[in-house]
Amino acid sequence: xxxxxxxxxxxxxALVAFLSGLPAGIPVDLAFIDHELWxxxxxxxxxxxxxxETDKAHILSGVRHGATIGSPIAVMLENKDxxxxxxxxxxxxxxxxxxxRVASPRPGHADLAGALKYNFSEARYVLERASARESAAxxxxxxxxxxxxxxxxxxxxxxxxxxxxxxxxxxxAWSDIRALWEKSQGKTEILLNCADPAVEQRMKxxxxxxxxTGDTVGGVFEVVVHGVPPGLGTFVQWDERLDxxxxxxxxxxxxxxxxxxxxxxxxxxxxGSAVHDEIGYDATSGFTGFTRPRNNAGxxxxxxxxxxxIRVRGYLKPISTLRRPLQSVDFASREPVxxxxxxxxxxxxxxxxxxxxxxxxxxxAKCALEKFGxxxxxxxxxxxxxxxxxxxxx
Length: 394
Prior knowledge:
Blueprint: E1 3-7, E2 14-20, H1 30-40, H2 49-52, E3 58-61, E4 63-64, E5 67-68, E6 73-78, H3 111-118, H4 124-130, H5 135-151, E7 155-163, E8 166-167, H6 174-184, H7 197-213, E9 219-226, H8 242-251, E10 256-261, H9 264-267, H10 272-275, E11 280-281, E12 290-291, E13 300-301, E14 304-305, E15 310-316, E16 327-329, E17 336-338, H11 349-372, H12 377-392
Antiparallel strand pairs: 1-2, 2-6, 3-6, 4-5, 7-8, 7-9, 9-15, 10-15, 11-12, 13-14, 16-17
Helix pairs in contact: 1-5, 5-11, 8-11
């Protein structure tokens, strides 16, 4: 079973991620992991924190001589901003006068709900853990999941389809999504990770508009999984359905408020004849020879992958921290005040897409290990290849 969790705070000394259950013998490309972390930090509209942090993965365990060894993997990401916060957020008692309170909760953030839940008098400790900075740790272990999936010829990438009022109306082919990733390999600046340059320019204008007004803007990203065979996930129990697992994984990301599989939203307003993907057959096609002229199902039917590309969309609300703060109340006096302001971004849709890639990769890897898993990559590949042969012989 693939298990993972993260620890650490936004301005703490480090983020740490733990991943257990990968087979032994997966080649680990450290440069690939660091490039994934770099991708998460890109995008027009990111804030000043990205000028401080240059995330690098420091693997503490589970990898030796460039490959996994079957034991749990621990990854640490240093927070370079810690040097500016260690007197404000010490592990020991420290000097209370140096503590930086979050005196008024920000609407849309975890501040008030978290302070009430944990009985804090203000929201500093809530902010520190609820921050999207935590997603960097997920990207690090998600990169390891991607390296595992690469061994099974599966790949996970994302692109942006909406920022504010700017929308990419057409479906984007895998080749175009991969071209965006290939462009980033030379560390070419990622603007908004949209496959259509004209639409990307309109997206930039949306970000420019909120930059001028002190506001923030959200949008929609799409994660695509290429090369997934039919049969991952199952319909037999509610908590084993692949679409449910993916929805939970993407929804777990900070600021995601809705998740869509395939054309799920449009399908709800359309007749069945316009929604369901008709089935054909071509013996030379794909894993099984069964074909689809379209992919409204997003690669999943009945909670099970059907051999088409898996497509998952995340709907991201605007960032909760505004330079022109909304109305709030003071924690201590209960008097009306403006919400607290912390250094923040104004648009993170491309970065959220990279974090969602990590969560989707971890989910697909978990399902793949449940179906094909072995203690070594040799055993896992043998199981996978045997299943693929079974599909061809069907």
